[in-house]
Design brief:
Mean pLDDT: 83
Structural class: alpha+beta
Strand order of the largest sheet: 3-4-5
Low-confidence stretches: 36-43
Shape: globular
Amino acid sequence: GKVVADYVRATGETSLIFGEPDYWFKTVFATRGLFGENTRRAALADSLGLLRATPTETWMRALDRGGRPVEASAALVAHLRAMADFARIMRVNQRAQDYEARADALEARVADTFFAGGTPLDRLDRDGQRDPVLRPNARIALADLRLDADTERAATRRLAEALAYRHGVGTQSQADSVTCYPFLREPAFYEPRQAAFRGPAWPWLTSVLVDLMVEQGGAEQAYGFTEAQAGLVLDRGAVGAVASVVDAHPHPGEDAPRVGGSPADLYALAGFVGNAWQDYLGARYAAGNRLVLEPILPEAWGMTTARLRLGEGCVRATVRQVSEAVT
């Protein structure tokens, strides 16, 4: 839902909502299905609206993260806001207000449950207990939430200190020295199927961290991660692509991490491009014919020229950083 809403907002093209047979009905039905009982299993959402997951339903499918994972409920908040956008497009304003109210209420519960005091939590287990293992999923959740600035800043800092490496974001806190190991191929330390989630880094998660850091005023610090991503694109694995998983840091005697998993991870590459386009250049579409530029250029970029789509044509923008100002 969120992706469709972003597409409609950027292009002004509403035919996907109006023109697709029963699209609105199907989307509303799917949303209601999250909260209602069905014949195959209990409602996906609990009494507080937090989404449940079975042990293998999250993207870290080799690990048991059954219970209430943080990123699932945050994604539901984003979905409800997208539903509000759909309702406005369909001119069903009361429904839009209802969905916004649901999103606000759920977001408050997510903040209280998973980000109390700015300390991120990965999940509640099946018994409702807090999982002490810190993983990067709270960072994924932050991208879908509108938390207050202090909470978001504190959570981002905690996640970066525990999980961020130069070439990617680790899948388990470095402080978990018994169960966390930084290299992808070390069968003596973990089962091969769990290897990618026991400490090695995933480059696609870096784009989420960069987005949050730029938003919070840390563009120069974030650019160090972007430069490392550029090194992966040009010098490691397939040229022009980013591998899905990398060692958290180089092996002894080596100067770059080894890569593994898929040789071309589209999420990682799209995130790398998106950081340049949306975070540093600051380009976003308020509507199909309205382009907004709010650049926060890294000092190393100097004068930057970009060609951007606008309506049926395009515009060319030249941007440069002058001291603390951008012109």
